[in-house]
């Protein structure tokens, strides 16, 4: 991640707590709504998915694409954000 | 799967019989029930559910029992979580927990893996076809084309030769000489090939033209040349002529040092001078000519060149009928040159820039193909194996030689010393004395001590 967005920095800066799924980098309103429809209403649920996929980049990105139709950049942002958060707080 | 009883609840013997009925290789007799259950789950449950799912897959499931690999042909969604995990593991993917939210991901992954596996096989088959057949066919076609063209050219040249023959009433020998020069010029013109630039091509053409022209000039020179040289056999003349193009070419292409042995001659020098002076004279014509050539197809270009040559030849004939053989000799170089050019660079004419970006296909032979079959080493007999084993344990030969020489030297020294024994004995004695004195001095001390002790006593 050469350049990280503001959203990414904010998410990675602190424990995610009860943040909504839209707080994740790469997840905007549209994707967030889709994720919520699928039951992933909080960021920690997505984190759970990320963890249960053993932090596998490919699998997680695939899952994100299938679940909410994220494009490559959104997948990358979301993955990078969760990865960094885990590196910091897990 | 409501039709199948939970295999874990079945007895071991029942499991065994089930497995046998489904042609599954039984695990060793001592193995635990869990193993049987696993096998049961893997093979029998799969086939059962597949039986109910679709008819198309039936033939596959007959084989499933023998070869668990074929089970991967199944739709991953029909597998149990554990089977899915096992299959993924078989494909080198260490799956995490397969739960409701992750199952879809892993199924997709497995499907991708299966597809990629199948694709690889397909590709290999396609490649094999590409490697083996199509290549040869293409080459064959090209060869056919190339073979057809030279024949056409040869016919044309033969016609031209005939014309000249009729006009000049020359002997058959000369025509044969011409043929000989033809083959030689093949060789000479092949040197042109590595010069890919348009300039070179152009200049070479010009030079070959110059050669033709210079042959007209050299007529005059020839008349000045002493009679002895002018009486040189026709064969030599033809040799000189054929050397002419090579000489001029090497001059222009900045000293490609490869000249034929015949190349250096008076006529060649003349031609060099001519080639240096004449470009301005014939450049206009050649420029237009070459530019036309680039945009024309092979056949039309060829025809035009032949025509041009005919014209030149005609001129030559008109001027001096005697030397028309020389023109004949020099004329062939152009045609085979084009010929080989086309053979080697079939598409070069199409590039107006002169830069050859040949659309040559990548080498489909051994270079690109991955090594699929390592040639076995030549069979080695057990005796050679033994010998190698022994050789491995042996001391290296240079050490053996070294040791041998040291031993020889020592023996020689000993023999020399022994021969004059007088020198040996003192040496030995001195050695003994030396050792004795070392041992003796403390002994003396002791004796002195004892003496003194006894004295005190």
Automatic annotation (TrEMBL), chain A:
SUPFAM superfamilies recorded: Barrier-to-autointegration factor, BAF
Keywords noted in UniProt: Chromosome, Cytoplasm, DNA-binding, Nucleus
Gene Ontology molecular function: DNA binding
Pfam family, one: SAM_BAF
Entry's localization field: Chromosome; Cytoplasm; Nucleus envelope
Source domain of life: Eukaryota
Gene3D superfamilies: Barrier-to-autointegration factor, BAF
Family statement: Belongs to the BAF family.
Protein name in UniProt: Barrier to autointegration nuclear assembly factor 1
From TrEMBL, chain B:
Record-annotated membrane-spanning stretches: 397-418
Biased composition regions of type Acidic residues, renumbered to the chain: 133-156
Residue stretches of biased makeup (Basic and acidic residues): 283-302
Database matches in SUPFAM superfamilies: LEM domain
Domain LEM-like, first and last residues per copy: 4-47
Entry keyword set: Acetylation, DNA-binding, Membrane, Methylation, Phosphoprotein, Transmembrane, Transmembrane helix
GO molecular function: DNA binding
CDD domains, A to Z: LEM_LAP2_LEMD1
Domain LEM: from-to ranges: 73-117
Gene3D superfamilies linked: 1.10.720.40
Disordered: region residues: 116-157, 200-229, 275-302, 435-457
Any one of the GO CC terms: nuclear envelope
Family note: Belongs to the LEM family.
UniProt protein name: LEM domain containing 1
UniProt organism field: Fundulus heteroclitus
């Amino acid at each position: 991640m050469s350049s990280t967005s503001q959203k990414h920095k904010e998410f990675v800066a602190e424990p995610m707590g009860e943040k909504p799924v839209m707080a994740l980098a790469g997840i905007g309103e549209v994707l967030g709504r889709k994720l919520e429809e699928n039951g992933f209403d909080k960021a920690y649920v997505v984190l759970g998915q990320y963890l249960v996929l053993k932090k596998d980049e490919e699998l997680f990105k695939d899952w994100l694409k299938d679940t909410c139709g994220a494009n490559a950049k959104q997948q990358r942002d979301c993955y990078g954000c969760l990865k960094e958060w885990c590196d910091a707080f897990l | 799967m409501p039709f199948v009883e939970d295999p874990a609840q079945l007895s071991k013997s029942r499991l065994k019989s089930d497995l046998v009925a489904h042609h599954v290789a039984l695990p060793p007799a001592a193995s635990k029930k869990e193993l049987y259950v696993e096998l049961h789950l893997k093979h029998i449950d799969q086939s059962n559910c597949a039986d109910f799912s679709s008819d198309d897959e039936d033939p596959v499931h007959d084989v499933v029992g023998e070869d668990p690999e074929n089970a991967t042909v199944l739709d991953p969604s029909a597998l149990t979580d554990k089977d899915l995990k096992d299959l993924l593991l078989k494909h080198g993917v260490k799956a995490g927990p397969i739960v409701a939210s992750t199952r879809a991901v892993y199924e997709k992954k497995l499907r991708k893996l299966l597809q990629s596996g199948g694709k690889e096989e397909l590709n290999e088959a396609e490649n094999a076809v590409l490697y083996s057949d199509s290549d040869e066919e293409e080459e064959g076609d090209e060869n056919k084309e190339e073979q057809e063209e030279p024949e056409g050219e040869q016919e044309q040249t033969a016609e031209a030769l005939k014309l000249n023959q009729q006009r000049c009433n020359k002997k058959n020998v000369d025509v044969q000489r011409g043929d000989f020069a033809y083959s030689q010029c093949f060789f000479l013109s092949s040197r042109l090939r590595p010069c890919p630039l348009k300039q070179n091509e152009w200049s070479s053409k010009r030079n070959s033209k110059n050669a033709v022209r210079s042959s007209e000039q050299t007529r005059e020179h020839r008349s000045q040349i002493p009679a002895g040289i002018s009486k040189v056999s026709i064969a030599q003349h033809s040799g000189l002529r054929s050397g002419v193009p090579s000489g001029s070419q090497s001059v222009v292409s900045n000293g490609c040092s490869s000249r034929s042995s015949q190349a250096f001659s008076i006529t060649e020098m003349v031609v060099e001078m001519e080639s240096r002076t004449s470009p301005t004279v014939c450049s206009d014509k050649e420029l237009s000519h070459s530019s036309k050539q680039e945009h024309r197809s092979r056949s039309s270009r060829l025809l035009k060149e032949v025509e041009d040559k005919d014209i030149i030849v005609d001129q030559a004939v008109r001027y001096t009928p005697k030397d028309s053989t020389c023109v004949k000799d020099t004329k062939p170089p152009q045609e085979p040159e084009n010929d080989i050019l086309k053979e080697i660079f079939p598409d070069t004419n199409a590039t107006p820039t002169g830069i050859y970006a040949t659309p040559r296909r990548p080498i489909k032979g051994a270079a690109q193909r991955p090594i699929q079959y390592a040639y076995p080493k030549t069979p080695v007999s057990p005796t050679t194996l033994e010998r190698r084993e022994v050789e491995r344990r042996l001391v290296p030969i240079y050490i053996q030689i070294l040791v041998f020489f040291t031993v020889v030297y020592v023996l020689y020294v000993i023999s020399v010393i022994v021969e004059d024994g007088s020198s040996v004995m003192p040496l030995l004695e001195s050695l003994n004395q030396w050792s004795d004195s070392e041992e003796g001095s403390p002994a003396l001390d002791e004796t002195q001590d004892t003496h003194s002790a006894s004295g005190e006593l």
